[in-house]
Amino acid sequence: MKRITAWFKIRYLFPVILFSAPGMSPAVAQDTITLDFCYQQVQKTYPLIRQAGLMDKSSDLRTKNLNKNYLPAFNVNGSASWQNEVTEVVIPLPANLPTLQGPTIPKDQYKLTLDVSESIYDGNVTSYQKKLEKYNLNVDKKNVDASLYLLKDQVNQFYFSILLTQQNIKLLLETRKQLESKLNEVESAVKNGAMLKMNADLIRAEIIKLEQNIYELSMDRIAGIRMLSELVSFPMDENSSFKIPVIILPGMNFENKRIEFEIYSIQRERTNLLKNMVTTKWNPKLWAFGQFGLGRPGYNFLSSDIAPEVMLGAKLTWNPWNWNANRNEKKIYDIQGDILKNQQESFDKNIRVTTQRNVADITKLSELLIRDQELIDLRAGITKTASSQLTNGTITSSDYILRINDETQARMGLEIHKIQLVKAKISYLYNLGKL
């Protein structure tokens, strides 16, 4: 049994991943949990899912603010000042005539105006900013989707650990039942003096070891259930049953559907938009403006009376030459686009390498399953023979225990290879972004 325990623990560490076939009912019964159901739960209940809605609201507000660029802007300006000297107009005349002096400008001045300006043409800056906002929102939401997609891998880890312990507990319980049945026979033979008491003690000790292993696995299973329940926000307990998924691959053609791959494409389009946006720095800008208010003095600075002020006009700005700064900025965005392209190609290459490993595992495990059943049939026959030999007293309990442990190990190998085959298939789909 030590060999079984050690062999099982080694394989228990392998990250086996499971999947539910398309069209499968999310939950077969109230106490039966499927992997597809867990996927649906975590996608609905994980706090990160609310982030997409918050991003939509934030982006909508930013777009509304950009639309206000087309609306007139109002500013109220007021000022009051005093100065020690003002302009004076003095006209000298011949000596026999008095000095001619112009109007006196007050040293204290006051002004209150309402300034209005409205963009007539902003060189398409606002239009590009709105397009850029859409790209930014799309990238942010795709990043959220990518993070949620990674949660499926966490679900897979918990679900696998539960399923693997569930299967091995079942096998160990069957082995214990066999040993208990054989113990009854041996104890009867001991009472009749046909066998030594040691034979019964050896089987009894092996049953205790089995019960310890079953208890340890049961505690591991409960811990896994609690963690999965917390992750997907759905009540589960030790009485819940976890269904082994079934998946059939439609084909093995490479097609990268990962969200991260799509994000690279969106970022490249965004970089191209930023490159085109540089052109807006060359475009002329045209504004209309108006000023309405009161001033002392008014536009007639020779008058000391408070007077109304009204001014209407338009303003044009254009910088046709900036010493090739815009051209260099476009080259920078071209380089950034090339960097993103290289990163996307590298990501795609890594996915191709990983899926080749998945394909090899699928082929290998499919062949191992065929041999597993042959091995079980042989081990079962050997165990049956050993059971008869123990009854007849031609072998000891130790020999019998070794044979039954070999059979249990073979059965565990079959169950683990089944799960590993599902793991290889689902890893293939997961890496391609088709999960």
Q: Secondary-structure map with pairings?
A:
Blueprint: H1 2-12, E1 32-33, H2 35-45, H3 50-67, E2 73-82, E3 90-91, E4 100-101, E5 108-121, H4 125-191, H5 197-232, E6 241-242, H6 259-277, E7 285-296, E8 307-317, H7 325-392, H8 397-432
Parallel strand pairs: 1-6
Antiparallel strand pairs: 2-5, 3-4, 5-7, 7-8
Architecture overview:
The longest helix is centred in the C-terminal third of the chain and has 68 residues, at 325-392. The protein has a single domain (2-74, 124-284, 324-432), classed as Up-down Bundle (Outer membrane efflux proteins (OEP)), CATH 1.20.1600. Helix 6 (259-277) runs antiparallel to helix 7. The relative contact order is 0.15. By secondary structure, the protein is an alpha+beta fold. It is built from eight helices and eight strands. A hairpin with an 8-residue loop joins strand 3 (90-91) and strand 4. The strands form three sheets. A four-stranded antiparallel sheet has the order 2-5-7-8, with no helix packed on it. A two-stranded parallel sheet has the order 1-6. The chain has helices at 2-12, 35-45, 50-67, 125-191, 197-232, 259-277, 325-392, 397-432, and strands spanning 32-33, 73-82, 90-91, 100-101, 108-121, 241-242, 285-296, 307-317.
